[in-house]
Amino acid sequence: MTDMTDPKVFEREAQLGDYFALLKPRVMQLVVFTALVGMLAAPVSVHPVIGFASILFVAIGAGASGALNMWWDADIDAVMLRTKGRPIPSGKVEPGEALGIGVALSGLAVMMLALSANLLAAAMLAFTILFYAVVYSMWLKRSTPQNIVIGGAAGAFPPVIGWLIATGSFAIEPWLMFALIFMWTPPHFWALALFMRSDYDDAGVPMLTVTHGRPATRRHILAYTVLLALLAVGTAFTAIGGPIYLVTAVVLNALFLIGAARIWNRNENDSEADNFAVERKFFRLSLWYLFLHFGAILAESALRPWGLGGWS
Does position 184 have pLDDT exceeding 70, yes or no? Predict the structure, then answer.
């Protein structure tokens, strides 16, 4: 295990790319996209300059969350195969630097979003950062197998923030988008945990695969996927849905249900290679699942001004 207290670990001078990696750019992309969809799906138009600036500050806030998460999780990141190459455990960035960057960017993002958009959007961004860094990273992740269920809310708030940027008020529609991400998160991460279980075992993280075993995890994936499919298809008949979204949701959720059923059907007598292939295929589909659902919501909102989007 890499010793985070050994100064020799951090002898190499960090490069710009190392600091960028600290911000979890892949997670940031999802945050930016879902926040953008939330903003554009709102019934109030936003000036392009204000919209661009606001989404930029949301992205900075997401990066700040990533830096704080990497600072706190540096010890377990050093143990896990999937994360040991991250900037801190690999010795490219010092933990104190990550903490300083995370705190500074958090303050900058919240303050600037308040100035570019409104106080409610800024407050929601601040709450999201605190939820991810404190509630999920510092508390839930290491204390309960429900870590990814409850903690998944942190990744579900961006479309709500985007809606608030445009309207400055709450409505049911952004919470439907929130619910899509919230219900998608557990099967997405449990599928990852199924074929990366040794990582969580080695790090002592109480993921469901570790505390309840693989069969229970498979049952949970199927149960959440059924609930997610009902929610996703039902959203087609709301104000943010429409025929384009309905077709997208029906096709994607049929594929997702088939994948979850195949995972549920597996057993411990199957070869590890067979299990790995099924679980990884489901995980890869889950990456497209959210992007295509939100892409369909975006398409409906883009066509609505011409009377082509939605059910009107």
Answer: yes
Model pLDDT for residues 83-94, shown as the tens digit of each residue: 899 999 999 999
CA distance 82 to 196: 8
Residues 152 and 189 grouped into a single domain: no
CA distance 158 to 131: 13
Give residue 1's pLDDT.
Answer: 47
Q: Where are the alpha helices (DSSP H) in the chain?
A: 16-21, 25-41, 48-72, 74-77, 95-116, 119-130, 147-151, 153-156, 158-167, 172-195, 197-203, 208-211, 214-235, 243-265, 272-303
The residue behind tokens 């069969």 is 215
Asked whether residue 63 falls in the same domain as residue 152, the answer is yes
CA distance 224 to 199: 23
pLDDT-based confidence at 6, cuts 50/70/90? low
The CB density around residue 96, as the number of other CB atoms within 10 Å, is: 10
3-state SS, residue 11: coil
Task: Provide the residue range defining the domain that includes 50.
Answer: 1-170
Cβ atoms of residues 242 and 310 within 8 Å: yes
Query: Sign of the C-alpha dihedral, residues 43, 48, 49, 54?
Result: positive
C-beta separation of 285 from 190 below 8 A? no
Backbone angles phi, psi at 310, to 5 degrees: 70, -165
Residue 121's Cβ-side half-sphere holds a number of Cα atoms within 13 Å equal to 31
Q: Find all residues with CB under 8 Å of 198, minimum gap 6, and list them.
A: 81
Q: How far is the first Cα of the chain from the last one, in angstroms, to the nearest whole number? A: 59
Both 102 and 188 in a single domain? no
